[in-house]
Specification:
By secondary structure, the protein is of the alpha+beta class. It contains 11 helices and 12 strands. InterPro entries: DUF8128.
């Protein structure tokens, strides 16, 4: 009794419990709220011709901005999800806007994949401890994360990501990226955000530092000048408000927490650019956790894992990988040792 009371006090001081268990009433309420998202598309790649670059064509086709008479962004969200449901791998897109023609866009882009549609897909189950790690951008401003077309990747980051998703035994784990198209005015910044021009100029300009002999001027480094060019080139690109999170349901709270953190490490390691822009991990607790779990179920954008991503950045973070990329390393720690693409593929839902 005393031990339970002390544990409750400790959780309250730390911001609340680190996992949450959905009951049947929670699920019914969330399913009712999620019922408006009629368009759910499942993509199963059949070959290695499916690649990260395909997403650079798909996301622009889903970028449709809607505003009200005050100019407020009312664009519907689109969700991309990569789930391991106890050994079955799923790539799922959902949208509440039928005018996006999500099924047709996916079939057009992923010709070497099985593309199907369904209704009522729900991301969470009841009765198990659920942990969520939000992945907001590490630095403020318009600094880019690592992009396949600029700094490049040695291999698709989804290789180690899938290895981690599948590496936790009997659990349900997933990546969810919920996006909302940004208005073209994003390049101009805002009341509290710098414009692209301001960010690029600051990167190119010398910095001033105090020293024992007075004030010295330090020229911008090569990496800073290169980043300034990348930032400048983003001016004509479409962008999305993105909310990135890792969700894990397991038999025990400690397993869910540990696996969510381990999976999130992939983003910290593989998506950090030379400007030190990337993702940081935030294990959610208490009311924050419950708020985001509702958003996971209803596929809504929150402020917890928030960042502004251009189309090339989003393509790297949210894409359907090739069949060989969807293969975990056989031995070792996948996050630290993933160098090559193995040749043994896991099965997809409904396939063997």
């Amino acid at each position: 009794m005393v031990r339970d009371s002390l544990a409750a006090i400790r959780q309250w001081l730390q911001g609340g419990p680190r996992t949450h268990v959905l009951n049947s009433q929670n699920q019914e309420d969330l399913e009712a709220r999620a019922g408006t998202r009629e368009s759910t598309v499942r993509v199963r790649p059949r070959s290695d011709t499916v690649s990260l670059e395909d997403a650079t064509q798909l996301w622009p086709s889903l970028h449709r901005v809607e505003t009200d008479w005050l100019g407020r962004n009312l664009s519907p969200t689109v969700s991309f999800e990569l789930w391991n449901d106890r050994g079955d791998v799923s790539c799922v897109f959902t949208s509440g806007d039928e005018s996006l023609s999500l099924l047709e866009q996916a079939r057009s882009q992923y010709r070497d994949a099985t593309v199907t549609t369904e209704t009522g897909a729900f991301a969470l189950t009841t009765g198990q401890p659920t942990a969520v790690v939000a992945l907001p951008l590490r630095r403020e401003g318009l600094l880019p994360i690592r992009r396949y077309d600029v700094e490049g990747f040695k291999a698709d980051p989804y290789g180690p990501l899938v290895a981690e998703l599948l590496g936790g035994g009997e659990l349900r784990a997933g990546l969810q990226v919920v996006v909302q198209p940004a208005k073209n005015s994003w390049v101009r910044g805002g009341w509290t955000a710098d414009s692209i021009e301001m960010v690029a100029e600051r990167l190119r300009s010398p910095s001033v530092r105090e020293s024992l002999g007075g004030v010295c001027e330090i020229e911008a480094s090569k990496a800073q000048r290169q980043t300034a060019q990348v930032v400048q080139a983003q001016a004509g690109m479409q962008a999305f408000h993105a909310d990135v999170r890792i969700v894990v349901q397991a038999d025990t709270a400690s397993t869910a927490i540990t696996r969510a953190g381990t999976i999130a490490r992939v983003f910290k390691r593989y998506y950090t650019s030379q400007s030190n822009q990337g993702f940081r991990q935030e294990l959610l607790r208490g009311d924050d956790l419950r708020t985001v779990l509702e958003a996971v179920a209803t596929r809504e954008v929150t402020t917890y894992g928030y960042g502004l991503l251009t189309t090339p950045e989003l393509a790297g973070v949210a894409h359907v990988p090739s069949m060989s990329t969807l293969t975990p390393p056989v031995d070792g720690d996948p996050v630290s040792s993933y160098d090559v693409v193995p040749d043994r593929a896991p099965s997809f839902e409904g396939e063997s």
